[in-house]
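Translate sequence into structure tokens.
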Amino acid sequence: MFRLSDIHEGLRSTIKLLVTEFKDKVRIHEEFGVIPEIECNLSQLNQVFMNLLSNGAQAITGRGDIWIRTRRDGDKVRIEVEDNGSGIPEEVKGKIFDPFFTTKTVGRGPARIVYRVWLIERHHGQIEVESEKGKGTRFTITLPIRQPKSMAATETGA
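Result follows.
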């Protein structure tokens, strides 16, 4: 169900769930801008945040950093999750949103990525990736502050 929700609250609760996984390995930097509550299904978005943060932590060898940035951009909000991990090789980067493509063992890769993209698209948003091998990866999610009227009515049962 879509309702007005605080994205920062969702991000912080997701970070709390992952704190034991991160331990002393990853330092999280919250660079939160001033953004309004958005019309969304926060539990679904939290699944996306969890996946991005977990993947970022797994890409870090030794100790590293993950930055989470939010900002308003007109009638949308942007959420960036950036790590300084191993990055995504160029030959892989263009395929990561393709169904059934994976570099992981069965059950760990493509379904999670395709599901993450589906959840963002379901929110009338976009997800993009920038990465450089050896320097890290940044995922940028863009979401509308308000859902189209027909979608909001369907989701709330109106």
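Note: Confidence is low (pLDDT under 50) at residues 105-111.
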